[in-house]
Structures are given as C-alpha cells and as structure tokens.
Design brief:
about 260 residues, Rossmann fold, 2 domains, globular
Length: about 260
C-alpha cells in the first residue's frame, strides 16, 4: 500500500508480529472526528489481550436542521473513509470496525453490502459494521420485529429501515431524536434515551436497537434490557460483539448487556 504523501524512500513493511499488548488481536476502529463516545465505550469493552487502534476521520460537526444536512455529513464520510483505512492498515490490524452506524445503512441492502465489500478489499481484513452486526445479533436471539432509536433525521432512518426490511425483519417503529449536530448527539442524557426507548417499546417489538454510535447508550441499554425483559442494544456494543466473534474471541463480558454476556 502506498500513499501520495509518502516521502521518497518510504517503505511499508507488511511482516506480521504478535502485538505485546494485544496478542489476541488488534482491532482498527474508524470513527468521525466529532464522535467521542463510541471510542471510549469500545475501549471499555476490550477483553484481556485485545487492543484498539483508533482513527478519527474528518467529518464536520455540521449544524443539522433538515435531511440535507445529514446528506452532507454522509458525503464527507464517503470522501474520507479510504484514507482512514490506509492509516489503520499501517498498524497491521487484524479486524476493521466502522464505528459510525449511519454509513453502514446508506443505500439499503445493496449500498450496505457494497460498502462492506469495499472496506474488506481496501483493508485486507474482515470488517464489522452496524447493519450486518445488528442483523447477526437479531438472528442470534430469534428477533423479527424491530424498533429503532436514533439521533437522526428521516433520510438516515429510511435507509436503516430499508436495510432491515430487505433482510427479512419488520421495523415496527423508528424513534428519532433529530439532534442538531453530532456533538449534540453525544450530549443526550439517560433520561432522554429512556423516554425514547419507552416510546419504541410501546410498539411491541421483539428487540430494540439504538443507532448512532455517539449516543452514550452502552450503559443505559443493559438497565433497560433488564427492566423490559427483551433485547435492548447499543449499536456500538453490537458492532464490537460482532468483531470479537468474527475474530473467534468468545469471551463473555459482564456489564454490557446480554449480547456480550451470553452470546
């Protein structure tokens, strides 16, 4: 792999060694610049012997007042993902995570799998994204009726619903918070998230999934899951669970909900 900014004489040694801090694997995590919560939640979820390599690709903290503003954010993501993969590839990562769930749903089923194939080819390793990770988790517990809680506007939610419905699930409700920027997404309180889940649950889903990795939902979800007696998942947890299981790391971790504890 080469980069247009390489200085003359630069080499890219691809010899693999076992990382001393992460002998079980190095996970490359891509996340937008304004998105800080998922980075730290995924650090908390690391089992012994696994390390995360983080790359923060450029996305503006766009003021959001309508669908078009989210479209602009998505255009920035598409323009900057490949550079992010190149930077992480210099760490000789064992697995790649896209820690931004919205991009994984763009274009519905076809667009999502096209992105997955592209990131696999670009990185040379297997990839975990929100769409496929959520699908696998739902199949794991036999859930078919799904409710979504998101920070988004309808342009993103329609793509997410299209993906799930295209893969055989029924989306019974989408509760969108319509946050006004990515940084505002990260400011949502447990009470606000609990209220959104209460509305979503009133539609009697088999499972509730929160999208939008900058929502701090990782600690809220297990509490609500216990209260409601059904799967309530933070998408960041779902993605990281998918990555670990794809790497044949089967550790069952407490404190993050039933998915990591039992599956």
């Amino acid at each position: 792999m080469t980069n247009n900014t390489d200085i003359a004489g630069t080499t890219h040694d691809r010899t693999r060694y076992r990382n001393a801090m992460g002998p079980r694997g190095v996970i490359g995590v891509m996340t937008p610049g304004p998105n800080v919560n998922v980075e730290n939640e995924m650090m908390d979820m690391r089992p012994e012997g696994v390390v995360n390599a983080i790359d923060r690709y450029y996305v503006p903290n766009q003021s959001i007042g309508e669908d078009e503003d989210w479209t602009i954010i998505m255009k920035h993501v598409a323009a900057n993902l490949d550079d992010s993969v190149e930077r992480l590839s210099e760490a000789l990562i064992d697995h790649l995570v896209l820690a931004m769930s919205s991009q994984s749903f763009m274009g519905g089923v076809r667009g999502s799998f096209a992105l997955l194939d592209h990131l696999r080819e670009k990185s040379g390793v297997d990839v975990s994204m929100g769409a496929q990770a959520a699908e696998q988790a739902l199949k794991e517990v036999g859930a078919r009726r799904v409710a979504l809680v998101t920070p988004y506007y309808p342009v993103i939610e329609k793509n997410a619903a299209s993906y799930f419905e295209g893969r055989g699930f029924e989306v019974v409700h989408v509760e969108g918070l319509k946050c006004r920027s990515i940084v505002e997404v990260g400011s949502q309180t447990p009470d606000r998230l609990r209220s959104a889940v209460t509305v979503a649950n009133s539609f009697n889903p088999d499972a509730i999934i929160q999208l939008g990795t900058n929502l701090r939902f990782g600690e809220v979800a297990p509490v609500l899951e216990e209260e409601l007696g059904k799967p309530v998942w933070a998408v960041g947890t779902v993605i990281y669970w998918h990555a670990l299981r794809a790497m044949k790391i089967d550790d069952q971790l407490e404190g993050f909900g039933s998915l990591l504890a039992k599956h």
